């Protein structure tokens, strides 16, 4: 089982082009906390969970407009892969590496 804790450099391929996001995660049991920061601003994650190597959380992006997202992913060593599901715009692939 890989630790999800730490800083991750994420790339999300969205309709607005490639987004580069810094994700900071801290796990405590099955609870996941942290924050996202990038061109879309900075926000804390909420309702975060970790189950083995799988993570999920929600966040409210504020730039360029307010939108709720749900992120799911799996950690394998120093790689993180998953999906970002947006409200009204579908899902997009996400990948990242440990910073």
Order of helices and strands: EEEEEEEEE
Q: Distance between termini?
A: 19 Å
> How many structural units, i.e. domains?
1
The CATH architecture would be Beta Barrel
What is the mean pLDDT? 92
Low-confidence stretches: none
Overall, the morphology is: globular
Cα-atom radius of gyration: 12 Å
Tally the beta strands: 9
**Number of distinct helices:** 0
- The level 1 CATH classification is Mainly Beta
The share of residues in extended strands comes to over 45%
CATH superfamily: Calycin beta-barrel core domain
Helical content (DSSP H or I, runs of 4+): under 10%
CATH topology: Lipocalin
| Structural class designation | mainly beta
Please describe the biggest sheet, giving its number of strands, its sense, and whether it closes into a barrel: 8 strands, antiparallel, barrel
Structural summary, described in words:
There is one protein chain. With 99 residues, this protein is mainly beta. It has one domain: Lipocalin, CATH 2.40.128.20. Helix content is 0%, strand content 75%. The chain is built from no helices and nine strands. It has strands spanning 6-14, 17-28, 31-38, 41-44, 46-51, 54-61, 67-76, 79-86, 90-98. Strands 1-2-3-5-6-7-8-9 form an eight-stranded antiparallel barrel. A hairpin with a 5-residue loop joins β6 (54-61) and β7 (67-76). It starts with 5 loop residues before the first strand and ends with a strand.
